[in-house]
Amino acid sequence: MFDVGSVLPVDRVPEGTNLLVGGPAMTRKRELARSLVERGLSAGEGAVVVTTRDSADRLLDVSPPIRTATAEGRAGVIDCVTRERGGDYRERENVRYISSPGDLTDIGIRAAGFFKRFSDEDRPVRFGLASLSTMLMYADTRRVFRFMNVLTGRVQQHGWFGATVLETDDRTAFDTFAPLFDGMVQTRHNEDEGRVEVRVLGLEGAPTDWKPF
Asked: Which residues in the chain land under pLDDT 70?
């Protein structure tokens, strides 16, 4: 079981679980997914993170747990941003640079490399992808669906835990990708309380109560 109690309104999720994180704009979805990864790293687990919105440098700056685990070889980061934006980059240990968020083949190859290494080490791993919506701007829905089918399948096969962010209010997109996931993490603004809240659907039947995030 993977401990998520400090982030979600459930204590643990079973091995092989994939969750889809979604909600309105400005409800900290990427931060939530990152927190789920960081929770495992703080407990000595490993991680594979695909970032299509923030560069690896920015991700490592805002997340000391991911930065530390990457330096220690417990985490791998796949940066789909820096090269596409024409930024300077230098290949380094445990950080891979992809030409664009639409290069699904190269992303898959790099992810498979990290997956194999961590599976050989027999280490519990959390997989994070933020965000699926950016990929859909570069590649058609069928290609992205097939790509995610492979990745979520590998998470399930290895008994790991995955959190993928979908940043859109388009119900069609959610309906398309929902079958690949075991449950969903929803976020919302609570205007009365002036805070972001989160709940989990699908893991234990009925939705959980909303919890501050």
From this structure: none
Dihedral pair phi/psi, residue 143, rounded to 5°: -65, -45
- Tell me what percent of the chain is helix, strand and coil, each rounded to the nearest 5: 40, 25, 35
Q: Where are the beta strands (DSSP E) in the chain?
A: 2-3, 12-13, 17-22, 46-51, 75-79, 95-97, 125-130, 161-166, 183-190, 195-201, 211-212
Two tokens, residue 70: 């990457």
Neighbours of 144 (CB within 10 A): 21
Amino acid (one-letter) located at 177 = F
- Express each pLDDT in 30-86 by its tens digit: 999 999 999 999 999 999 999 999 999 999 999 999 999 999 999 999 999 999 888
